[in-house]
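ARCHIVE CARD
Drawer: 12
Card no.: 0347
Subject: one protein chain, sequence and derived structure
Cross-reference: see card 0346
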Amino acid sequence: MRILIVESSKELSTLWRLHLERLGGEVHIAHSQDSATELLLELNPQVIVLDLVLEEGSALAVADFASYRRPEARVIFVTNTSFFSDGSIFRHCANACAFLPIATAPSDLAAMVEHYGRVPA
């Protein structure tokens, strides 16, 4: 399974990467909108773990680009804010499949990625 993590924090993205690699995932990391869109041109991830609040660029722009360039990729949004806590993210992003607090345990995030990254038989 190919996974793209888009997270500004290098420490957090590394922690998530380690958990996802334990499940056998091929994990790539981007720390900004620009690096995420570059990777989306090269990769075909099944799942994108995307922090809603990026230091450089817009997470919604990344999700929009992914829905155009990689429409089959599922997006798991993570955030440390209450913005979109009403579930409206699912109306704004067609490829959104989950919305989690950034404090979610890495093992729980990995389980969600594994669930949504399964290729249907």
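Annotation on reverse: The two ends are 14 Å apart (CA to CA). The chain has one domain: 6-117.
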